[in-house]
């Protein structure tokens, strides 16, 4: 209970309060017209000019109800307290206009748009004013009960809308966070692979140019093509972020595109083996297998010491698909290093699809990455 009171007291104002707009001016106009008309058609109302003037004093409060909810509530309910005090001291009849029920909107706005401190102070003031009004009007228990239920329902309604909006904003922030993580994973997997391929080809070009100058042009053409693919994929990701534009999405690569990763003219050589029925995989699984193989190959090319071969093996095993990427490089003795962003992103891909991923030194040396994914992605 203490924690709840403390959290309520420290509750900040909602950050999405809309500015004053046309509906607010319409509300002010309707209330002003209603107060003037009521002042004219109710000649039996005691202290009629004063009641109308005090009612019109609420006009600014209706415009402040979201930007300054406590001041608006104190103003509106302060007028109600003044009328109740006059009625109690002068022993006259009802001094309030029916249109003064607009103060209920100010109570709603206090709970919907106020901070925790403003809600506590404002509702305490409203409680005192309501009690004074009930006493001045000599209300019976039925009236007291009905008025209390009405106010509590109004407060509950405002709280529901307030915390429903807060929940929606949190969900939107969570979605944006997930999108940022997915984008970071895509950027890392895609760009890192292409840049690594460019670096390997450039290193090979430096060696080949000295021995076989006629092949330098071929290597430069391969580097140019790889750089063009990298730029094209980067531009497609940037277009996805520009929500005001209509984006034509390129089809995601999958298992059928893995043979394109095979290389026999570079070191290390890359061999791709596909086994079993791999044509009816769920689209997310198909794409994830390609990305996992691509990132594993990138890591092998960049980090495997003295590797001459990298093998990519994909096979169907019942309701699961197994991916194994291994190299014959030399592993350094000592503890296994902490995983970087690449391995973390790969593990996230597998876990999101209900699968698993492991990476570490192989039994015969080198580095082995193994992933097991279900054939059909979970809903």
Automatic annotation (TrEMBL):
Pfam families registered for this protein in UniProt: HATPase_c (PF02518), HisKA_3 (PF07730)
InterPro entries: HATPase_C_sf, HATPase_dom, Sensor_HK_TwoCompSys, Sig_transdc_His_kin_sub3_dim/P
Catalysed reactions, as listed in the record: ATP + protein L-histidine = ADP + protein N-phospho-L-histidine
Source superkingdom: Bacteria
Domain Histidine kinase/HSP90-like ATPase: 287-376
Plastid listed as a keyword: no
Keyword annotations from UniProtKB, A to Z: ATP-binding, Kinase, Membrane, Nucleotide-binding, Phosphoprotein, Transferase, Transmembrane, Transmembrane helix, Two-component regulatory system
The enzyme's E.C. designation: 2.7.13.3
Gene Ontology MF terms in the entry: kinase activity
Domain Signal transduction histidine kinase subgroup 3 dimerisation and phosphoacceptor, residue spans: 179-244
Protein's recorded name: histidine kinase
Organism ancestry: Bacteria, Bacillati, Actinomycetota, Actinomycetes, Mycobacteriales
């Amino acid at each position: 209970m203490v924690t709840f009171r403390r959290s309520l007291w420290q509750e900040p104002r909602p950050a999405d309060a809309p500015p004053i707009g046309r509906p607010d001016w319409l509300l002010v106009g309707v209330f002003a017209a209603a107060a003037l008309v009521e002042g004219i058609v109710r000649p039996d109302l005691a202290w009629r000019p004063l009641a109308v003037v005090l009612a019109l004093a609420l006009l600014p409060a209706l415009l402040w109800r979201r930007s300054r909810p406590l001041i608006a509530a104190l103003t509106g309910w302060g007028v109600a307290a003044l009328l109740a005090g006059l009625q109690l001291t002068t022993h006259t009849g009802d001094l309030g206009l029916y249109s003064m029920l607009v103060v209920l909107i100010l109570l709603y706005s206090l709970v919907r748009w106020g901070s925790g401190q403003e809600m506590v102070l404002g509702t305490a003031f409203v409680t005192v004013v309501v009690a004074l009004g009930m006493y001045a009007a000599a209300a019976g228990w039925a009236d007291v009960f009905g008025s209390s239920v009405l106010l509590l329902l109004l407060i509950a309604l405002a709280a529901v809308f307030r915390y429903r909006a807060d929940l929606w904003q949190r969900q939107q922030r969570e979605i944006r966070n997930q999108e940022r993580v997915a984008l970071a994973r895509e950027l890392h997997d895609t760009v890192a692979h292409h840049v690594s391929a460019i670096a390997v080809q450039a290193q090979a070009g430096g060696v080949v140019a000295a021995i076989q100058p006629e092949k330098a042009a071929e290597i430069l053409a391969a580097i140019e093509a790889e750089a063009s693919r990298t730029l094209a994929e980067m531009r497609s990701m940037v277009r996805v972020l520009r929500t005001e534009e209509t984006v034509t999405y390129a089809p995601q690569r999958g298992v059928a595109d893995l043979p394109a990763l095979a290389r026999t003219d570079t070191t290390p050589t890359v061999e791709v083996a596909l086994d079993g029925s791999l044509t009816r995989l769920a689209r997310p699984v198909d794409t994830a297998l390609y990305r996992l193989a691509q990132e594993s190959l990138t890591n092998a090319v960049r980090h495997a010491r003295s590797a001459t071969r990298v093998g990519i093996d994909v096979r169907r095993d019942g309701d699961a698909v197994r991916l194994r990427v291994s190299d014959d490089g030399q592993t350094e003795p000592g503890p296994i290093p902490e995983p970087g962003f690449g391995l973390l992103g790969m593990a996230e891909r597998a876990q999101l699809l209900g699968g698993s991923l492991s990476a570490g030194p192989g039994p015969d040396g080198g580095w082995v990455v193994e992933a097991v994914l279900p054939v059909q992605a979970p809903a």
